[in-house]
Design brief:
Elements (H helix, E strand, L loop, with lengths): L1 H9 L1 H23 L2 H7 L1 H28 L8 H25 L2 H10 L10 H33 L3 H24 L3
Helix pairs in contact: 1-2, 1-5, 1-7, 1-8, 2-5, 2-6, 2-7, 3-6, 4-5, 4-8
Length: about 190
């Protein structure tokens, strides 16, 4: 949904930047797992809940931004895609990158995934950090290919759907989905 929201709001470049941020975030989790910090996160219920709530609040914040942006847009006014593309070039690139990175970084589920999966592929005597980075590289490449394909697909659809009412509906829908996911994560039990 984050990629969808950014492609709609800022164009395909923003989608690729979000993907890049998420891929870098994968290496963050691989490092935590290799250093054993993911184990601490899984064992500490309070820390797990804190990270989970931070991630949920972040998704709710991003969803709220989409909804607010959609409600400020005039449904019968001109499309704001050109303005948004300029905003991306001027200042939003890092913001969009950080959205992708922070979303992955604040995902306790990703930490648990890396703690559960990575050790199964590391043999005794191997460099844990090196092997973790190698496996994270594979994961990052898969993410890059899959989400880049999604970005291209969304960019083509968005180009066909430049009508302001459709954009407004998509912003509200993607924003509401992010808020829903944030609330669901916040309410989920360990």
């Amino acid at each position: 949904m984050l990629i969808t929201r950014n492609v709609i709001a800022h164009g395909h470049k923003a989608g690729f930047i979000v993907v890049l941020g998420g891929c870098i975030g994968v290496f963050f989790h691989a490092t935590l797992s290799a250093l054993g910090l993911s184990f601490i996160l899984v064992q500490s219920a309070r820390l797990f809940e804190t990270i989970k709530l931070l991630g949920a609040l972040y998704l709710i914040f991003l969803g709220g931004q989409s909804i607010r942006r959609a409600l400020r847009q005039k449904p019968n006014g001109p499309s704001s895609l050109n303005y948004r593309a300029l905003a991306l070039e001027n200042k939003t690139g890092w913001k969009v990158f950080l959205e992708g990175f922070v979303t992955i970084m604040l995902s306790p589920e990703t930490s648990v995934f890396y703690l559960a999966i990575l050790p199964q592929f590391i043999s005794f005597g191997e460099s844990v950090l090196l092997k973790s980075f190698m496996l994270a590289s594979i994961h990052a490449i898969v993410r890059l290919v899959w989400y880049s394909t999604l970005t291209v697909f969304l960019a083509r659809i968005t180009a066909m759907l430049k009508r302001p009412r459709v954009q407004q509906w998509l912003e509200i829908t993607s924003g509401a989905t992010l808020v829903f996911l944030g609330l669901k994560i916040a309410a989920a039990r360990r």
